[in-house]
Design goal:
Blueprint: H1 3-19, H2 24-40, H3 45-59, H4 62-65, H5 70-86, E1 101-106, H6 113-126, E2 132-136, H7 144-155, E3 158-159, H8 168-181, E4 186-190, H9 199-212, E5 216-222, H10 227-239, E6 244-248, H11 257-266, E7 270-274, E8 282-284, H12 287-294, H13 300-310, H14 313-324, H15 330-342, H16 345-350, H17 357-366, H18 371-381, H19 385-389, H20 396-406, H21 410-435, H22 452-456, H23 469-473
Parallel strand pairs: 1-4, 1-5, 2-3, 2-4, 5-6, 6-7
Antiparallel strand pairs: 7-8
């Protein structure tokens, strides 16, 4: 989402760090560039002005200009101010109240309200052990109610039965009664949207709000729509009153200005961020972590949390035992590739690692993306169980068969085998070092040696990237 802005700011701050001692004019010039970068990223003008003024005031202070590392001090000030602009602290969903607690989902048509409703329902059911019902109030868009019903079936969440011809207010009353009688903890009301804000939309939402008395009124906004999303947030907050924002498509290639402006303009927290189409692609919005990603400082905490959620404990323990023995076959490599895919792919992992922005750029320039790993997985799946256990069985004719079966080339098969061989060698070295009493292989979250970070990113050595990855880039 913030790649362009991150690159621009990274270049500005790299220049400051290289200068050593800073003059006031250096800071002023850097802030001018920061201002342009934020405006180009679609951040609201009023927000940019306040942000730059706050940073400049602190950065030109005596403590910074006379500091041993003035460039880094300026970066820290920018990080602190950006965190404050995004909301300072993470604000979770409020489920406190007399059941059924109502969540009212509002926003424009196409912003992702229905999908976000289902994602929240799945999250509350699985993580918070809540009994959730969903009800669609969208009687205008064709098959909107049916869409929510299908999503409910997919995630195992009850939806209010559809009765044709009812008004949104009638559906709301029926949903409230049904949720009370059936003992639901949370009722999620998915309202209709429009292509733009108008009075009929606001009147309808206000009527539903008055009947349901929601604990949360969440504005669902598409982060790729930039300034429009900010204007919509102001309108909804002024006329209906929102308690928070759920930003969708945070994994897109947009400029990110909506995310940076929303909190400052409305004063309401960004609570959730949608990061993909899958039903579990919904994250809490952590201002300090997002600021860290934008400024190239990474987001290791989120990475570790994501690893703990996606990596199976039993698989990790099996992998740890195998690595302790110095064995690492192609089945193990396939497991590592699958784990990386679950964690958002290689670019998703790199985006959370400090200082990895340039490597992401190199991947983009060379055309390397997560499809490479899909191809590698397909290659491994085209092998027989014996070949996966003993790669040395793969002679020229077998390689041709595997390449044909996976839709790849023999060269790609050879590249995968070379990468596996390098990884297997490293595993053996690590196991020997462990026996010698030095740096033992620790069962991390992916069973990888080095515990913490190595395991946390699917167990791949070298901070989550397989040895020989540079060969893929060449």
């Amino acid at each position: 989402m913030f790649d362009n802005l991150s690159d621009r700011l990274g270049g500005i701050f790299d220049g400051l760090k290289r200068r050593g001692a800073l003059k006031e004019s250096d800071v002023t010039e850097a802030m001018r560039e920061v201002r342009v970068a934020l405006l180009e990223a679609d951040v609201a003008l009023s927000v940019v002005k306040d942000f730059v003024a706050a940073v400049k005031k602190k950065a030109i202070g005596h403590e910074v200009l006379k500091s041993v590392t003035p460039g880094q001090q300026v970066v820290k000030i920018v990080n602190d101010e950006m965190t404050a602009m995004l909301g300072a602290e993470a604000m979770g969903l409020n489920t406190i109240g007399v059941p059924p607690v109502v969540f009212l989902m509002v926003g424009l048509q196409g912003s992702g309200k229905t999908t976000t409703s289902a994602k929240i329902a799945k999250r509350l059911t699985e993580k918070d052990n809540k009994k959730v019902m969903m009800a669609s109030l969208d009687v205008r868009r064709p098959a909107a109610q049916e869409q929510l019903k299908i999503l409910g079936e997919q995630i195992g969440v009850k939806t209010l039965p559809i009765i044709e011809g009812q008004l949104p207010t009638d559906i709301t009353k029926r949903a409230m009664n049904a949720a009370k009688l059936q003992g639901f903890d949370v009722l999620i009301l998915d309202t209709a949207g429009r292509l733009h804000v108008d009075q009929s939309l606001m009147a309808e939402v206000a009527a539903v709000r008055d009947i349901s008395a929601p604990v949360e009124t969440l504005l669902v906004a598409d982060s790729l729509t930039g300034q429009d999303a900010v204007n919509v947030a102001k309108e909804f907050d002024a006329q209906v009153g929102i308690t928070g924002v759920a930003l969708t498509r945070m994994d897109g290639d947009g400029r990110g200005g909506a995310a940076l402006s929303m909190r400052a303009v409305t004063g309401k927290p960004i609570k959730l961020a949608g990061t993909g189409e899958k039903m579990d692609a919904l994250e809490d919005f952590h201002p300090e972590r997002v600021a860290g990603r934008i400024l190239g400082m990474g987001d290791v905490v989120s990475l570790v949390e994501k690893a703990s959620e996606t990596i199976d404990k039993d698989d990790a323990e099996k992998m740890a035992k195998k690595m302790a023995k110095g064995t690492f076959d192609l089945d193990d490599l396939r497991t590592q590739l699958q784990q990386m895919s679950k964690m958002g792919g290689l670019k998703g992992v790199l985006g959370m690692l400090p200082g990895m922005g340039k490597l992401k750029g190199a991947m983009g320039q060379t055309g390397v993306d997560d499809k490479v790993f899909k191809h590698q997985e397909a290659i491994i799946s085209s092998m027989t169980p014996q070949e996966r256990k003993k790669p040395q069985l793969l002679n020229a004719s077998r390689k041709k068969r595997v390449a044909a079966g996976s839709g790849t080339s023999v060269q790609e098969v050879n590249k995968l085998l070379k990468m596996h061989m390098q990884m297997a060698k490293m595993m053996k070295k690590m196991s020997k070092m462990g026996k010698g009493g030095r740096m033992p292989p620790m069962p991390g979250m992916g069973g990888g040696p080095g515990g913490g970070m190595g395991g946390g990113m699917g167990g791949m050595p070298g901070g989550g990237l397989p040895p020989g990855f540079d060969k893929l880039l060449s």
